[in-house]
Amino acid sequence: MTAFRDLGLAGGIVTALDELGYEEPSPIQERAIPELLAGHDVIGQAQTGTGKTAAFGLPLLQYLDPGSDETQAIVLTPTRELCIQVTQALRSYAEHLDVNVVAVFGGTSVRDQAARVRSGAHVVVATVGRMMDLISRGALVLTGARYVVLDEADEMLDLGFIEDVERILRMCPNGRQTMLFSATMPPPIARLAERYMYDPVTISITPKKLTVDAIEQAFVEVEPKRKTDRLVEVLRAEEPEQAIVFCRTKIGTARLDRALRDRGLRSKALHGDMSQGQRDGVMISFKEHKSPLLVATDVAARGLDIDHVTHVINYDLPNNSEIYVHRIGRTGRVGRTGRAITFVTPKERGEIERIEREVRTSIGEWEPPEERLDHAPRPKRRHERRGPGGPGVAGEAPAEAGPEPPRPPGDGHVKLFINRGSRSGIDEDDVRWALREGAVIPADSIHDVRVLERFTFVDLDDQQAEKALDRLDGTKLRGKQIRLEYANR
């Protein structure tokens, strides 16, 4: 197991990491930190949440000379929220270093920020527009900026900042070390890297499973004309504590927000045409539970870190699987379960299968909460036995977390429970086909299939039961997600 001290980091940085509870580096940190400490330019293609701030931040801090008052490193971010988060992280990593990390962004006094930069900012973390403003005022000089980070470059492209990013790069020394992070690599970003980076090392990190198990995913197929009405129906059925509804465009976001409020729902819009003051007011309202619904574009919601979001709704289908993962990752936080619901038109139906393949997940058709309860697997109960309280009183539960699989009766059969039945459009032939083709179970090992309205029972040879559970649990049958478990004896 690799430790941070094995990567060549200085003692003061390692001490800070120990105090923060960092035990071992993530894959992007393990691969990027040695390359950066060796002086190489690095392109990091990684999702949010992979630990990229420490990947570029720790070598950056080690590079600094505390005795110099020059600005030696800059980090460019697309949004104010991300600028603040990166600054907080760098300051925590630099707890035992005599360095000054300053954040500059729009929406606050440019004079105050200019004064902090002039007072000796070793590192400036900035949004692109505010950095250009400080440069034009003469408050920020980049002749000593020999470590440059472009964080979430694809978002800078979407916001129209790339020309300003190039101007900033041209103001930095030719011998600088450059690191570019981007979740995706569209052609303009690839061209920027080719033009302004020197022989970069490319590090691509793709999590083995891009979604977390705590997120339940579903889709709603609906004709375009009925989309808003259907969304209102889903929201009223789900009754989310807090939900983010994602739209593709700023105009679409504002229009949907008005439509929801006209129907009596408490929502707020968040998009790039709003002033920083308006955006801050929306975020405060959402974080304080005053507005249960936030209708937002991807760019406006970038950098949001809210733990209590119970639902993410893709009103407009995301452009790719990476954006899908970014969106739904905003629910299911801190050990809680979350719901992600994606709206598709009949023409977009195939996109659900594509996301399932690329993200290696299963997205079932949406059902109202009461129907989901009907189709949920029956809970695994601890075995009861007679206790000291007398006949019929539950005694001490066994030490294991759940019951052992039921022992087969004398005929060597095991009964399995499936959480779907005829009400879901499933018949006996469907179940037998899934067992034979999906689980590769011989036909003569399937002794009985009993399809009820909401459930199904299957009688199998005991040696085939585990195979059926492993291969079919969580898959889909007739477009519906199925769950398998041992039936109670």
Overview of this protein structure:
It is a single chain. The chain has 489 residues and is of the alpha/beta class. The protein has three domains: 4-204, 3-Layer(aba) Sandwich (Rossmann fold), CATH 3.40.50; 215-366, P-loop containing nucleotide triphosphate hydrolases (Rossmann fold); 406-486, Alpha-Beta Plaits (2-Layer Sandwich), CATH 3.30.70. Helix content is 36%, strand content 19%. The protein has 17 helices and 22 strands. The chain has helices at residues 11-20, 27-37, 52-63, 80-93, 110-118, 128-136, 153-158, 162-171, 187-196, 227-238, 250-262, 276-287, 321-328, 349-359, 369-375, 428-438, 462-472, and strands spanning 42-45, 73-77, 101-104, 123-127, 147-150, 177-181, 201-204, 215-221, 243-246, 267-270, 293-296, 311-314, 338-344, 364-365, 386-387, 390-394, 413-418, 446-451, 456-461, 476-477, 480-481, 484-486. A seven-stranded parallel β-sheet has the order 3-4-2-5-6-1-7, sandwiched between helices. A seven-stranded parallel β-sheet has the order 10-11-9-12-13-8-14, sandwiched between helices. A hairpin with a 4-residue loop joins β18 and β19. α2 runs parallel beside α3 (52-63). It is globular. The two termini are 44 Å apart. Residues 376-407 have low confidence and may be disordered.
List keywords for this structure.
single chain, 489 residues, alpha/beta, Rossmann fold, Alpha-Beta Plaits, 3 domains
Oligomer: single chain
| Helix content estimate | 25-40%
Identify the CATH homologous superfamily of the largest domain: P-loop containing nucleotide triphosphate hydrolases
Average pLDDT taken over every residue: 83
Separation of termini? 44 Å
